[in-house]
Amino acid sequence: MKIEVVMPKMGESLQEGTITKWIKKVGDTVERDEMILEISTDKVDTEVPAPNSGILTEILVQEGTTVEVGSIIAYIETEASQASSATPIVQAPLVETVSPAPTPIITKEEPVVAPTLTPSNENFVQVVMPKMGESLQEGTVTKWLKKAGDKVERDEMILEISTDKVDSEVPSPVDGVLAEILVKENETVEVGTPIAKISTNANVSVHSVPAKQETVAQAIATPAPVVVPTPVATTPIQNITSGTKEIPTRYEGNFFSPLVKSIAEQNGIFLEELLTIKGTGIDGRVTKENLLNYINNKGVTPAATVASVAPTAVVAPAPAPVAPKAAPAPVAPSKPQVNIPAGADYEVIPMDRIRQLISEHMVYSKHTSAHVTSVSEVDVTNIVNYRNKHKGSFEKSEGYKLTYTPFFAQAVIDAVRQYPMVNVSVDGKNILKHRRINLGIATALPDGNLIVPVIKGSDMLNLKGISYSIQDLASRARNKKLNPDEIQGGTITLTNVGTFGTLFGTPVINQPQVVIFGVGAIKKRPVVMEIEGNDIVVVRHMMYVSITYDHRVVDGMLAGQTLAAVVKNLESMNENTISL
Questions:
Q1: 6, 13, 297, 364: least buried by Cβ within 10 Å?
Q2: What's the distance, CA 464 to chain centroid?
Q3: Which segments within 482-559 are labelled E, that is strand?
Q4: What is the three-class DSSP state of 354?
């Protein structure tokens, strides 16, 4: 398969980049995430990794050339038998026309979450659930911003969607009328599923009633005919009668999508059962089909299943009176329900989806890692003085405010570079040592939730590049403009607990990482300093910095050395060493 390498979008305001150096040449074998070229923008210089493993078969843009974001710059062939020199091809259009409507085109300047279009008849364009990341296979419609019959303009937001990674808004791909809404709010559907129809014909008839959606329970009770292949196993599926009812999104390297979790919980499937199901999805994940097949065959010997059919694959009729054994009884909630008495003096606020995911992730982290926190204090007077002196000119030249966070991030990155064994994660009994430092920056959202966008390859950026990346990611996070891939792949995390005056905290490790750094509020305090052999009390700007680490793989000495390096890096920053 031929994979496109495109000029990456490195910020909302950046529309082009210059190729400064090809690290790999045509014919070279490349590994996924291996750096293959260097690019430069007016904000930052960085390296670009290979999106897939394979052979670099074509380089379309030469060094020194400036191209627009999204332009194809190279091809990687993932199949060795096909890896040979080829004539550069013209990229196929992302959208086909629907005669006689004008050709809708998604340009490379579309918002990150651009919906996929499927041509339909009668001048309709289908809007489908967009693919918002390599590992994401489904999404939930959380809110329709437009209703059937509303006129919409291209790029106007028409709905909000949610995944297990990020919430985002979806723009209309064309001008027209929202003719039909196919998926109701709070329904989860797979990527590529049609969710609405937009008509480019002004005389379109409007369907205001959403198409009937089959519920999960109905899908399970009356399954469609399935193909029953010759089984390779003869062992009956074992029934597990007890276990963990609350299924986390991630558990010991396994990922369970919201749809799979919903089906499992409705049918009383325990976590321990899910772990026994062989998944056929990406990275061996359990899919909806895998789970439904497991439920339909629960307690059945596969060998007996095929005893009454031919050895070759055949279409089996829908299961007979097995379904009437009544839908599985509702699973009792693992936590007692709160009965709200009349006139109660409190308000019950249901958790939104993001808050539920945060809660789940935090509990999972505590269950997984042995948390230990160490704290040091640091004198940041020189940083405060530098920022006060230069913040005005910086904002005037760059267009955004200079905060303290880039200085803290730079100190952390340099310390992790010095002690790379904290830049690891745990995979069973193996330690994975990461080659790049992908720094996550904890960011508070307007709704009170938290998200952690990631600066990929932060160790390749200078202080100005780090500053721009933090501002860009934080701004887009608060405006729901992040790509889901931008909150994945972090190797370490920094959280500024001092934003609201907190002196220091003991943050929870962001799995699967093993360390998280915390910085507190900067306070003026009298401290004792030795000057020319004399102890003198002076007023300095002081701050606490912490490292919370996973004691399974990071011991106290390594954590202490890393924290000491952060302190040293911060205290060595001054007018002569800082370069912005």
A1: 13
A2: 25
A3: 492-496, 515-519, 523-531, 534-550
A4: helix
Cα 496 to Cα 520: distance, rounded to the nearest angstrom: 6
Per the annotation, the verdict on 367 as an active-site residue is no
Annotated catalytic residue within 42, 427, 447, 555: 555
Which ranges in 323-440 belong to alpha helices (H)?
353-368, 381-398, 405-418
pLDDT number for residue 244? 83
DSSP letters for 129-152: ----STT--EEEEEEESS-TT-EE
Asked about 164 being catalytic, the answer comes back as: no
Q: Is the distance from CB of 267 to CB of 220 less than 8 angstroms?
A: yes
| pTM of the predicted model as reported, rounded to 2 decimal places | 0.52
Can you tell me which residue has the tokens 């904290």? 422
φ, ψ dihedrals at 534, nearest 5°: -110, 140
Catalytic residue among 42, 367, 447, 551: 551
Q: Is the distance from CB of 432 to CB of 491 less than 8 angstroms?
A: no
Contacts of 175 (CB under 8 A, 6+ apart): 152, 153, 154, 200
Helix (H, G, I), strand (E, B) or coil at 390: helix
Beta carbons of 404 and 383 less than 8 angstroms apart: yes
Between 324 and 441, the higher pLDDT residue:
441
How far apart CA 511 and CA 508 sit, in angstroms, is 9
HEC assignment per residue over 436-463? CCCEEECEECCCCCEECCEECCHHHCCH
Q: Which of 411, 415, 437 is nearest to 424 (CA)?
A: 437
Q: What are the helix (H) ranges across 401-442?
A: 405-418
The answer to whether the CB of 302 falls within 8 A of the CB of 236 is yes
* Angstrom distance (rounded) from CA 456 to CA 472: 13
